[in-house]
Amino acid sequence: MIELHYWPGLDFFSGLLTHDQTWIEAHEHYQKQSYRNRCYVLTANKIDCLTVPVQSLAPHQPIREVQIDNSQHWQDRHWRCLQAAYGKAPFFDYYGPDVQAVFRKNWTYLFDLNWEILTICRKWLRTKLPVNLTECYEKVPAAGIFDARSRLNARKRTGNYTFYQPSPYAQNFGPDFVPNLSLLDIMFCQGPEARRYLI
């Protein structure tokens, strides 16, 4: 069981691909400064954090009620960043149109955006393992369900991973491998080979 992320990282997908099924927490309260509305990509100069702005939140805001602040034109910024970072990557022309289509839609709710992204990423990884939405919030999941909610921490990005065992692959920039970036990084750089780095 895990929460929905924005263009999730490799730790997220390593977990998804190595379990028989995944439960997405659909009834939690939104948590700030988390992967729920941000992802990390590698640009020419640094690791860049792409953040989806959200409208002001009430205390304990249910995740499915969190609305995106579209006045900030975040889609344009994110797409321009990805074009600059990965435009010359081997598989950008193949996967880029799917990403651009996401940014061309008008999204109201963060949860709906992230669900669409997860659907696209599962298609890219060619996985048909079941992904289910929880029907209610349970502080302790049923027996046999591994609780990964909030274990993948955006503020502690490196070092201890829940599922991911870093396996270096060729990235666009720099001599040093950067692990656990958004799935976008490995898809644009490795294409169909991405899956074997995650399992």
What distance separates the N and C termini? 18 Å
What structural class should be given to the helix and strand makeup?
alpha+beta
Task: Name the helicity range.
Answer: 25-40%
| Low-confidence spans | none
Number of helices: 6
N to C succession of SSEs: HEEEHHHEHH
Instruction: Give the rounded overall mean pLDDT.
Output: 95
The strand line-up of the biggest sheet is 1-4
Radius of gyration: 16 Å
Percentage of β-strand residues: 5-15%
Written description of the protein model:
This protein is of the alpha+beta class. Helices cover 31% and strands 8% of the residues. The protein is built from 6 helices and 4 strands. The chain has helices at 10-17, 74-86, 92-104, 110-124, 183-190, 194-198, and strands spanning 22-24, 38-42, 47-51, 131-133. Strands 1-4 form a two-stranded parallel ribbon. It has a two-stranded antiparallel ribbon with strand order 2-3. β2 (38-42) and β3 (47-51) form a beta hairpin. α3 (92-104) packs antiparallel against α4 (110-124). It is globular, with a radius of gyration of 16 Å. It starts with 9 loop residues before the first helix and ends with a helix.
